[in-house]
Amino acid sequence: MAATLKLEIVTPEAKIYSEDVDMVTLPGVEGEMGIYPMHVPLMTQVKSGELIAKKAGVNHYLAIGEGFVEITGDRVAVLTDMAIKADDIDEMKAEEARKRAEARLAEKLTDEEQATVQAALLHSLAQLNVKRRRNTR
What we know:
The chain is α+β, with helices and mostly antiparallel strands. Helix content is 29%, strand content 42%. The protein has two domains: 5-86, ATP Synthase, domain 1 (Sandwich); 89-135, Single alpha-helices involved in coiled-coils or other helix-helix interfaces (Up-down Bundle), CATH 1.20.5.
């Protein structure tokens, strides 16, 4: 029986995280999912939000964007358009990005532009939520 899961988080730019962990909590499209070793195989979408990797009793927090997750009994592979460790989030830059995106959404945009701006807004909100929640604990 596997005692850990291999968590890999990949973006188009790089492999952001690759560690053996005890548990993963991630934002699925149907709600928050908790994944332990020996989880039933599953492939589903993830949405922008907070991913928590528990390793040796310590939680590691990341802001992730939309994407997909493949889960097997001993592996969790997340393919996402954004992943940033909580410690690497620049709160001021994320807040500026949020304001810019909200201002752009008020403009007349094509459907493609609106989707791009909406994704940018979700990225900045995910980062702000993760960073601000971690600063209050």
